Amino acid sequence: MKIIKVFMLGLAMLAGIFSCNVLDVSPTSVITTNSFWKTQNDAEGALNGMYVNLRNISGSIYTLGEQRSEVFEGGVYGSGRNDLYLNALSGDQPNHPDWSGFYTVINSANLIIKHADEVTFSNEAAKNNILAQAYTMRAYLYFVMTRTWGDLIIRTEPTETSKAEVTIRERAPQAEVFSLIKSDLEKALARFTDNNFPTGRFKWSKPAANAVKADVFLWTAKRMNGGNQDLTTALNAIREIEKADVALLPNFADLFEYANKGNKETIMTIRYQDLDGAANNQFWLHWIIDSAIPSNTDAETKALVQPVGGGQGLLVLTELVRKQFTEDDTRKKASFHEIYTYDASGKATFYTSVSMKGRGLVTGGTRLFLSDIVLYRWADLLLMKAEIRNALGEDPSEQINLVRQRAYKANFRKHTFVNGSKEENDAAILQERLLELVYEGKRWWDLVRFEQAFELVPNLKTRKGQDYLLLFPIANTVLSLEPKVKQNPGYQ
């Protein structure tokens, strides 16, 4: 009997959680293919469950995208994440995200893709919209995974049996993975019925699929010998996003206010909401534990961090990164707050920092870390456009200066970007991405794409030539379950 254990999907699907932004947990155990894939409500429930599963791995996506860069170091109470920011990785360490959660979400997408034809929809557009989201999800997750682990097991059919020929597979070459990613994106883009965003912008849309497409083709242009053809494809994808309802917000800090979720700069996020029964990872990464708040700090800091809401502060910004922000850059105070202690004479000593991106909300005297995880926003795509134009030999000034105008406001003229050599422009774009997107899970990917990981990450500077470090090791927990999968070279 084919049985789908829908990864807690039944807890969410029938309640239609994303229609009310509340996870209504009701007891559903297993659902069979014969009894489930009948109505449009079934397909919409499966789609909602897919997004619940995405939320379950949001911390992993963030970890893979930033925590090996030069951005972080251990907090005042230690990290428990040292292996990541020190680039001292092996398959044994429990702090590694493994790929099992990613394949869970991919399986959710595969179920929709396989069974959508069995469902009675109100119209063809409704069916196409659901399929488009499933194809985009699968493409996005394979993209995250292949940048992390390289070659991957390709699964395009849902796992509905325990037969070895289905469950035990070898990895396919990375080139095949990218072929699937690009194919899925074209299938998705052909099925989205318009260029609009869904309410809240926490489900895949045509502009969001084009954001993934731009990201993918920029990566393959620079890392997979795709050259100008892939750069042009990436640029055209961004031009399609420009036709949608998207714009930079006037004030950088407004991007991250809890009450301003789904704003016009947002392209795709992972949604967190009060009463959903989930919290993002900001509380343990970038905030501060109650007992670590110094008594001899200033009143502004005490007011800012209270209530702490169970924060732990395992990772904090390095001095190397903090000092790259100028005082007239509005992104500085909107990105992080520096905490100082003061002795009897008033002398200040740096103590730690906390993130201002992801503070969540305070309700009933408790801080809840429920800020959305932003996967793509317009400033990110503008800086991608600058990167693409520079790689094509064009002037990237317009896009860089749009981002800087907001950041520096009245002081912009002092920071106006002027076109230089390709190398100078790349250096400026890479730094601008750091200042704009710090804490947003982008930095490691940027360093790898720009071929600057061994240049800019202090603990990698003495390891130039050890290119295996650009991938993550495969967790031993995965190797124990996948007998045909071998550890990535260099980690054995």
The side-by-side strand order for the widest beta sheet comes to 1-2
Give a quick account of the main beta sheet: strands, pairing sense, barrel closure.
Answer: 2 strands, antiparallel
Total E-strand runs:
10
What would you report as the Rg, rounded to the nearest angstrom?
23 Å
Shape: globular
Distance between the termini: 40 Å
Structural class: mainly alpha
Rounded mean pLDDT is 90
Q: Give the DSSP E fraction (strand runs of 2 or more residues).
A: 5-15%
- Low-pLDDT segments: 1-31
Number of helical segments with 4 or more residues: 22
What is the helix content?
Answer: 40-55%
Keywords summarizing the entry:
492 residues, mainly alpha, two-stranded antiparallel ribbon, two-stranded antiparallel sheet, 10 strands, globular, disordered N terminus
Structure notes:
- The chain has 492 residues and is mainly alpha-helical.
- Helix content is 45%, strand content 8%.
- It has 22 helices and 10 strands.
- The chain has helices at residues 9-12, 17-20, 33-36, 40-56, 58-66, 82-85, 100-115, 124-149, 164-167, 174-191, 206-223, 227-242, 282-285, 299-305, 319-322, 330-335, 378-391, 397-408, 422-437, 443-449, 453-456, 476-481, and strands spanning 3-4, 31-32, 72-74, 266-270, 315-317, 336-342, 348-355, 361-363, 366-368, 373-377.
- The strands form 5 sheets. The protein has a two-stranded antiparallel ribbon with strand order 1-2. Strands 3-5 form a two-stranded antiparallel ribbon.
- Helix 4 (40-56) packs antiparallel against helix 7, helix 8 runs parallel beside helix 11 and helix 17 runs antiparallel to helix 19 (422-437).
- It is globular and about 75 Å long.
- The protein starts with a strand and ends in an 11-residue tail after the last helix.
- The model is unreliable at 1-31 (pLDDT under 50).
